[in-house]
User: Fold this.
Amino acid sequence: MFPRNSGNRHYLLMSQRSWERLWKSTLLLGILLGIVWWQAGTGKFPLIETANNLWVLAGAVICLMMGLFAMLARNMSYVQPQATHFRIVTPFMKLNVAYRRVRTIRPVDLVQIFPPKEQGWAKRRFLAPLYGHTALAVELRGYPLSRAALRFFLPVQFFLPQATGFVLLVRDWMRLSTELDTRIGALRGRNKQQDSDQPKLLESIRRQNRDW
Assistant:
């Protein structure tokens, strides 16, 4: 039986981690700038000159808007298996990866892919809360877009360092693996059935032509 077209949405922990870091810092900065702006208008000893009030207010509004957007964007990045492909969705990108591109799917320990000793300070700090998780390494025959283009929308830790493919870090990797394997198996079985039916169809057409 062919599985239903759309699988579950599995939220990407790498993207959540990126947005988690962004929304806290920008929201805090926006609040601090708002306090400075308010103090300049009401306090006896303003921290900034009156002429700069509008610039500080604009900065506060922008930071607050960015912080709120980043807070909402944490749950806008996910991977979802479909009938013929799996879909990677972020706030600024929707990428379909056909199953024919998939070479292998295997579980991997995040520490093995990104050893802490080999990471720089910034990358090690980014990955620290995620170490100990199991991810799915999806090795591909090629990316749907160039890696350089994908890097505009996905963190560098989303890519396999020694191969072509993605590191899919989700909360339930076993369920995602099952959904992908089921759909890939069903698609390949259907393709084999179509290939086996093609000679029969051609033979039927030849017989009809002879009878005609």
Remarks:
- The radius of gyration is 25 Å.
- Residues 10-73 form one domain.
- Residues 89 and 107 are 21 Å apart (CA to CA).
- Residues 173-211 form the longest helix (39 residues).
